[in-house]
Structure formats: structure tokens, C-alpha cells
């Protein structure tokens, strides 16, 4: 029987640990969350982040900006928050409207307030093993594996997807944990042949139910980073859960897997920023 990895439960454990830490600090921690426009999915995620802050005892300040906000205006706000010593974390919810250059905004955030771990300085630090903020979804995946006592060292880890916010950083993190890492993407030939080698298969491609049992080795651990909402508001991941369940030894569900961990690790980064 496969283990269903309970991200909701582990995220609550982590949040409870953080709540205790914050209570013992005697110091305010403040996260600023900036959302441009009103994409409904973004609003759900932003609200989940604010709820988590409240639970842990972190102050959250919301900036809800209209879709027409210019790049200059957004840069101005980020710079203003960079300069406020009471602000510990700045999060600009992605995606941004097309007229705003995301890279430019991310690079404007002061690296020591970049609790998403998206700034090139933090990405660079991760890749050369220096301390810095680690991107929340990858950090959450490693926490899930560790807290379920799933060994990483020496394992064959295959990552499907090479985005800057998930694929690339999770590959770096698994490498740091001494896995043997292969990164696959849309131009990979014989994808199935490669994914079938994986002891740990991490999927972040953004295609609903793409990974079926033909892609998975018997007994593999499958981590599903995808999140898709269908017509009747039901969520599913990049992995066809019902199809692979008989074959895997452990798997993260959607919802209730990686998603809540992303938020728990964001809270972790905020607390780290507040302590520093
Ligand atoms: N600057 C920035 N930082 C992010 O961390 C960031 C972002 N932009 N843009 C979008 C993605 C996506 N993301 C999620 C967070 C929580 C859930 C989550 O809580 N998921 C729940 C379900 C929530 C629901 O009902 O939709 C679950 O999987 O159980 C999902 C996805 C953070 N992201």
C-alpha cells in the first residue's frame, strides 16, 4: 500500500514549531504581500499566505494594486519597502501582468528580504552551497521527504520541468542532499525511459495528469508539484494519481501535498528573516 504523503499535516507541524519560536522572540515580524491585478487563483494563494501569517503571529501587510500598475510604480513600492527597517519580507505574487518585467521586479527586492528565494543572489547562493533564502516549494519538498524518513542520499532523482522557481532550484537542492539528479524538460527525448529510472520523481510541468503509470518505476516516490483547477473547481496535479497509485511506494496528493508546504516554508523564511 502506498503512503499518501500528508503535506497538510506536515505543514501544520512546521507552522506550530514556527508559532512557538515567534512567541519566544519578543519581536514583531512583518511580511509585505504585493498582488497586482485580481487573478482568482493568485487571490486564493495570497489569502492562504495571510492566514498562515496570522496563525503563526507574523504581521502581514497587503498591497492590492490595480492591473494597470506600471513597472515603475511597482519598483517604487518595492524600493520603499526595502528601505523600511521594520519590513522583514517582501513577496510579489507571480505571475505579474504582461507589461511588467518579472525579472526586473525580482531583482529589485533586497536579497535579505526576498523570502521567496527568487532573487539571483539567493539562487546563486543555493547553487554554490552558501546560506540564503531557498525557494519555498523546493524547500517544502525536501522537508516532506525528510519528515517521512524517505532517504535522498545516493538515490536517483528525476525532475521533470526546468522552471526558475521549481525545476532548477529543486534540482540544486536534491544535489545538495546527495541525490543523483537528472533534469528533464519539453525537449527531452524518451522521457518515459528516464522517468522510469527515478527512485524519487519530482514533477513540475504544468500539464494536468500528464504522468501515468508508464512513466513510473515500481516502488518510486512521486512528488507532484502541479496544481490545476477544472470546470467544477476540482483540483488535480501533473500526475494521474489514480493511475500511478498502485505502483508507487509514496506520493503527494493534490490538494494537500506540496501546496501547503510552500506556504509553511515561506513562513519559515519570514521567521529566519525576522531573527537575522
Ligand atoms: N511570489 C510568489 N511566490 C509563490 O510562492 C507563488 C507565486 N508567487 N505564485 C503562484 C505560486 C503557487 N503557489 C501556491 C501556494 C499555495 C498553494 C496551496 O495552498 N495549495 C493548496 C490548495 C489551495 C487551493 O484550494 O487552490 C493545496 O495544494 O492543498 C498552491 C500554490 C505559490 N506560488
TrEMBL record:
GO terms for molecular function: methenyltetrahydrofolate cyclohydrolase activity; methylenetetrahydrofolate dehydrogenase (NADP+) activity. This is Bifunctional protein FolD. NADP(+) binds at residues 161-163, 227. InterPro entries: Aminoacid_DH-like_N_sf, NAD(P)-bd_dom_sf, THF_DH/CycHdrlase, THF_DH/CycHdrlase_cat_dom, THF_DH/CycHdrlase_CS, THF_DH/CycHdrlase_NAD-bd_dom. Residues 135-273 form the Tetrahydrofolate dehydrogenase/cyclohydrolase NAD(P)-binding domain. SUPFAM superfamilies: Aminoacid dehydrogenase-like, N-terminal domain, NAD(P)-binding Rossmann-fold domains. It comes from Herbinix luporum. It catalyses: (6R)-5,10-methenyltetrahydrofolate + H2O = (6R)-10-formyltetrahydrofolate + H(+); (6R)-5,10-methylene-5,6,7,8-tetrahydrofolate + NADP(+) = (6R)-5,10-methenyltetrahydrofolate + NADPH. Signal peptide: none annotated. Pathway: One-carbon metabolism; tetrahydrofolate interconversion. HAMAP family: THF_DHG_CYH. Residues 5-116 form the Tetrahydrofolate dehydrogenase/cyclohydrolase catalytic domain. Its EC number is 1.5.1.5, 3.5.4.9. GO terms for cellular component: cytosol. Homodimer. GO terms for biological process: L-histidine biosynthetic process; methionine biosynthetic process; purine nucleotide biosynthetic process; tetrahydrofolate interconversion. Belongs to the tetrahydrofolate dehydrogenase/cyclohydrolase family. Keywords: Amino-acid biosynthesis, Histidine biosynthesis, Hydrolase, Methionine biosynthesis, Multifunctional enzyme, NADP, One-carbon metabolism, Oxidoreductase, Purine biosynthesis. Catalyzes the oxidation of 5,10-methylenetetrahydrofolate to 5,10-methenyltetrahydrofolate and then the hydrolysis of 5,10-methenyltetrahydrofolate to 10-formyltetrahydrofolate.
Amino acid at each position: 500500500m502506498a503512503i499518501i504523503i500528508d503535506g497538510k499535516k506536515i505543514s501544520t507541524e512546521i507552522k506550530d514549531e514556527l508559532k512557538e519560536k515567534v512567541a519566544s522572540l519578543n519581536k514583531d515580524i512583518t511580511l509585505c504581500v504585493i498582488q497586482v491585478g485580481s487573478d482568482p487563483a493568485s487571490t486564493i494563494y495570497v489569502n492562504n499566505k495571510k492566514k498562515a501569517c496570522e496563525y503563526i503571529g507574523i504581521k502581514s501587510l497587503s498591497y492590492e494594486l490595480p492591473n494597470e500598475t506600471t513597472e515603475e510604480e511597482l519598483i517604487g513600492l518595492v524600493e520603499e519597502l526595502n528601505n523600511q527597517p521594520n519590513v522583514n519580507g517582501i513577496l510579489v505574487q507571480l505571475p505579474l501582468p504582461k507589461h511588467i518585467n518579472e525579472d526586473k521586479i525580482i531583482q529589485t527586492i533586497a536579497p535579505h528580504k526576498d523570502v521567496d528565494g527568487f532573487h539571483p543572489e539567493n539562487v546563486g547562493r543555493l547553487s554554490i552551497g552558501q546560506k540564503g533564502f531557498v525557494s519555498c516549494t523546493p524547500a517544502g519538498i525536501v522537508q516532506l521527504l525528510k519528515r517521512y524518513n524517505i532517504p535522498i542520499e545516493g538515490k536517483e532523482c528525476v525532475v521533470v520541468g526546468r522552471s526558475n522557481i521549481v525545476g532548477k532550484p529543486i534540482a540544486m537542492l536534491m544535489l545538495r542532499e546527495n541525490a543523483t539528479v537528472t533534469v528533464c524538460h519539453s525537449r527531452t527525448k524518451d522521457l518515459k525511459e528516464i522517468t522510469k529510472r527515478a527512485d524519487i520523481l519530482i514533477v513540475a510541468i504544468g500539464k494536468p495528469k500528464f504522468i501515468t503509470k508508464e512513466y513510473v518505476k515500481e516502488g518510486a516516490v512521486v512528488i507532484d508539484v502541479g496544481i490545476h483547477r477544472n470546470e467544477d473547481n476540482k483540483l488535480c496535479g501533473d500526475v494521474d494519481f489514480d493511475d500511478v497509485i498502485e505502483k508507487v511506494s509514496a506520493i503527494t496528493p493534490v490538494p494537500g501535498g506540496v501546496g501547503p508546504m510552500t506556504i509553511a516554508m515561506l513562513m519559515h523564511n519570514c521567521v529566519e528573516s525576522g531573527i537575522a
